Fold this sequence. Notes:
Structural class: mainly alpha
Order of helices and strands: EEHEHHE
Helix content: 25-40%
Amino acid sequence: GVKSCQYSVVLWDVDSNDWQYKNDGDEGVKKIVNNVMSKVKNGSIILMHDIYENTYLATKEILKQLNAQGYEVVTVSELLGNPKAGVEYSKAS
């Protein structure tokens, strides 16, 4: 189980569903952006896959919108404050 794991287990609380829209052109990029922006909140961890062109394009727009709304994008360690082994995290408390 998680408690016996030698690593922190970090899950997400916002799923971009980017894989579903990887081949949908500009419309797919818009759907990815909307999926994230409609669910994101302070402390969110967003799931995205760095292997799709549409994800890259959506990420640029998401970062722009998050910045405009005053969000700061940080690493998991910065967000969770040095996560501990054997503990499951899904967002900042």
